[in-house]
Amino acid sequence: MLGPVILAASRSDRMRRLISAAPVTKQVVDRFIPGDDVDDIVPVIRSLAERGLELTMDVVGEDITNPAQAAAARDAYLELIDRLKPLELGTRAEMSVKLSMFGQALPGGHELALSNVRPVVEAAAEIGTTVTLDAEDHTTLDSMFAIHEDLRKDFPQTGCVIQAYLFRTEADARRLAANGSRVRLVKGAYKEPASVAYLDKHEIDRAYVRILRTLMRGEGYPMIGSHDPRLIAIGQELARQAGRKLDEYEFQMLYGIRGEEQSRLVAEGHRMRVYTAYGTDWYGYFMRRLAEKPANLRFFARSMLTKG
Predict the structure, then answer these.
(1) How far does Cα 238 stand from its chain's mean position?
(2) 5: left (phi > 0), else alpha (psi -120 to 50), else beta?
(3) What is the pLDDT of residue 58?
(4) Catalytic pick from 184, 213, 273, 288?
(5) Is the separation of the CB atoms in 133 and 99 below 8 Å?
(6) Where do the Proline dehydrogenase domain residues begin and end (predicted)?
(7) Is 184 a catalytic residue?
(8) Which residue in 14, 29, 50, 54 sits closest to 265, CA to CA?
(9) Contact between 198 and 165 (Cβ < 8 Å)
(10) Do the beta carbons of residue 109 and residue 139 sit within 8 Å?
(11) Alpha-carbon dihedral of residues 114, 115, 119, 121, nearest 10 degrees?
């Protein structure tokens, strides 16, 4: 399986230098990350919104080594929110944040991340939108869920992400579904040990369906994060069985992947949100996109061979 190998490479400084220096890399990265800064991304936001798509925006960058970098990450999101305000998109354009960017892994990281993310959530609420806390590796999740619970006391629409491949997630889903949260369900894209996660694709898919059924039957708002046609169809059926209207759940996919399917779902009346990342510190994000799907890796390898 190449996925774990790629995820290991995502933490290698040598591989980062090699891949970043390849002439073709920027062309391929642009498929998934359509801009380096907020000036680049505003036209992309307008274009997607005009096509009836919704967005969740991610300023990429996870390798935070000091509080100043965490504060800079906070400020980058505040700048994004300031630029979203005149677009008046409301919840059609929300934010996704990784707490590692806000200093979670630093000494005193839980409190630091909370203090940095709260102004972002507050600013998002002021322009009529919200924030979703992305899930990272399993060692960070207790802190993420505690911050999520804290933020929801004042901002109940704050969302979070759960990962189907982790054993713990079925219990997390039951808790979150009962308290009415916005929950994005994904398969998972971090290298995890067999002691905490399913490693077999079919086991992960089965867990995904079980968890999604729990979310659909619950009191929250499910967000189906998947490009898998089978899981998308199952999601539609589970929503029908649960008696959910089309605006009571949504689909989410990554920018640059399955654009025709995104448009199809919009045409059918579904809410379809595009996870749109931008920024210059793209390496970790890009490598996880390669690890998630063999077709992405083939696309990159073919480009390296033909244009490198």
Answers:
(1) 22
(2) alpha
(3) 94
(4) 184
(5) yes
(6) 45-301
(7) yes
(8) 54
(9) yes
(10) no
(11) 10
pLDDT of residue 235: 98
Tens digit of pLDDT for each residue in 255-270?
988 999 999 999 999 9
Q: Is 55 exposed, middle or buried (0-12, 13-18, 19+ CB in 10 A)?
A: buried
pLDDT band at 303, cuts 50/70/90?
A: very low
- Is 210 a catalytic site residue? no
Catalytic residue among 58, 134, 172, 205: 134
CA dist 12 → 42, 63, 228, 259, 308 (Å): 32, 12, 29, 31, 21
Greatest extent of the chain over all pairs of C-alpha atoms, in Å = 53
- Beta-carbon count within 10 A of 274 CB: 24
**3-state SS, one letter per residue, for the chain:** CHHHHHHHHCCCHHHHHHHHHCCCHHHHHHHHCCCCCHHHHHHHHHHHHHCCCEEEEEECCCCCCCHHHHHHHHHHHHHHHHHHHHHCCHHHEEEEECHHHHCCCCCCHHHHHHHHHHHHHHHHHHCCCCEEECCCCHHHHHHHHHHHHHHHCCCCCCEEEEECCECCHHHHHHHHHHCCCEEEEECCCCCCCCCCECCCHHHHHHHHHHHHHHHHHCCCEEEEECCCHHHHHHHHHHHHHCCCCHHHCEEEEECCCCHHHHHHHHHCCCCEEEEEEECCCCHHHHHHHHHHCHHHHHHHHHHHHHHC
* Six token digits for residue 176: 């979150």
Tokens of residue 146, six digits? 């505690």
Rg of the chain over Cα atoms, rounded to whole angstroms, equals: 18
Residue 65, CA atoms < 13 Å, CB-side half-sphere: 1
Give residue for tokens 């059609």.
92
> Residues near 143 by Cβ (< 8 Å), separated by ≥ 6?
99, 104, 109, 110, 113
